[in-house]
Design a protein that fits this description.
By secondary structure, the protein is α/β, with parallel strands linked by helices. The protein contains 16 helices and twelve strands. The radius of gyration is 23 Å and the shape is globular. Keywords: Pyridoxal phosphate.
């Protein structure tokens, strides 16, 4: 492979390295060794409390069931990333000018295998929000165009869409998913009924953040393809909690954070773009890779800390060694048991069928907590915040409370460091709050 300058960088051509077939590709030497988890191949560890103690940095006294917010880092990955930060500073020019790009290419190739896509279709970004802004702001919408999305869409994405509509005049078509749901076909039928051919872009969550629902994205994507509608899937919560195969899923665009459920250090995500659209997707920041190809344009958007991308390989090793299916199965079964337990303790009606909850779930809070203080006409964010703050300050329980369509819900997360005792503590705390507020005349 002949060296080609990347701006003034002394590095091989990024596009050519990514396009090489595996049999012709030579992986570079990584200057920092990754930890080994070989001991777990024949003797897999128990999930729950011991996993938390050995591999996560969470304070032992906190009941942490809000992994879905910003994740919680695998301690070995954090340590590996810090070693890369130190390695960078030993000889900054050597690392950034000569070593960095071939190493990032190798990371991209390894990540592409993990998520089931061609490495030339994937770029590394800091977070899913950056990826979404990159795609949406890069499409030349007009006032004749429509963007289709559901009310389950992440709040920051809705704000982005409103801003793009203000700038371009594009019409926003938001359709409503009503809770409770009795089956996943209700969402499929909603999209079938409301999505019109000629829509410029449709945006869907893979796992809806506020609603905690795992969406039927494969069926939704197929509907979009049938109607020739470009489809963007916001999979912020998917990587690490779902086994991804983007070749099978076939979205037009896809993004996911690695720092959430895969538990990498913060600021680690990827963006996938189908080859048919790569010519029109440009980074928000233009730098030395401009004009050198899709991957080259994104690999360097100015100097930043790349350590979380290097650390991600530790997380991938960890997931593969422990077994992706085993990890995903534990998360799902734990959340399912927690939903059943909390629903029984609080006499809560079901929000959605169990197959629509994976690593997160919504459970309705007890009816008596749905007290509406004047002048409100229904529970809102302030009601939810009051309960969430009480759980945090009085019980040291980190969990979000959501006000959705006039009801209060708790959104629980289940990761490999969680166990049933976390949700048992939550159940008792909520019941104590209910009794105390009843005594104070704050509940119905």
């Amino acid at each position: 492979m002949a060296r080609r300058d990347f701006g003034s960088f002394h590095a091989s051509n990024v596009q050519e390295l990514l396009e090489l077939p595996d049999e012709k590709y030579e992986a570079p030497h990584f200057p920092v060794d990754r930890p080994s988890f070989e001991e777990y191949k024949n003797n897999p560890p128990e999930f729950g409390k011991e996993m938390r103690k050995k591999h996560f940095l969470l304070e032992p006294e906190v009941t942490f069931i809000n992994h879905g917010a910003f994740g919680a880092v695998l301690s070995e990955a954090l340590e590996n990333g810090q070693k890369y930060q130190r390695h960078t500073e030993l000889q900054p020019l050597r690392f950034l000018d000569r070593e960095l790009f071939p190493l990032l290419v190798d990371i991209s190739r390894q990540l592409a295998k993990f998520v089931g896509c061609d490495p030339t279709d994937l770029v590394l970004v800091s977070n899913a929000t950056t990826a979404t802004s990159t795609v949406v702001r890069g499409i030349p919408f007009t006032k004749e165009d429509t963007i289709f999305f559901l009310n389950t869409t992440y709040g920051a994405v809705k704000k982005l869409l409103r801003e793009v509509s203000r700038l371009t005049g594009v019409h926003l078509q938001e359709e409503t998913v009503e809770l409770p749901l009795t089956n996943r076909n209700q969402i499929i039928e909603l999209v079938q009924d409301k999505l019109k051919p000629g829509t410029r872009l449709a945006i869907f969550d893979h796992i809806a953040s506020n609603f905690a629902l795992t969406m039927p994205v494969k069926e939704i994507i197929e509907i979009c393809h049938q109607r020739k509608v470009a489809v963007y899937v916001d999979g912020a919560h998917a990587l690490g909690s779902q086994k991804l195969n983007l070749r099978s899923l076939r979205p037009t665009y896809y993004t996911s954070n690695a720092h959430k459920w895969l538990s990498t250090p913060k600021g680690c995500a990827f963006m996938y773009v189908d080859k048919s659209c790569q010519d029109t997707v440009r980074p928000l920041v233009v730098s030395h890779g401009y004009g050198a190809g899709f991957n080259s344009e994104f690999i360097w958007t100015g100097l930043r800390d790349y350590s979380s991308f290097f650390a991600m390989l530790v997380n991938i090793d960890f997931w593969r060694t422990l077994g992706e299916d085993r990890i995903h199965s534990y998360m799902r079964s734990l959340v399912k048991r927690a939903v059943q337990y909390l629903s029984e303790k609080w006499s809560a009606p079901p929000v959605a069928p169990s197959d629509m909850f994976d690593s997160m779930a919504l459970i309705q809070l007890p009816d008596s907590l749905h007290f509406v203080p004047p002048p409100l006409t229904e529970v809102d964010f302030s009601c939810a915040e009051s309960i969430q703050n009480e759980l945090y300050h009085k019980y040291n329980i980190e969990v979000p409370i959501k006000a959705i369509q006039g009801c209060l819900y708790v959104r629980i997360s289940g990761h490999i460091y969680n166990e049933m005792s976390d949700y048992e503590r939550l159940a008792e705390a909520v019941l104590e709050i209910t009794v105390r507020r009843k005594q104070e005349g704050q509940v119905e």
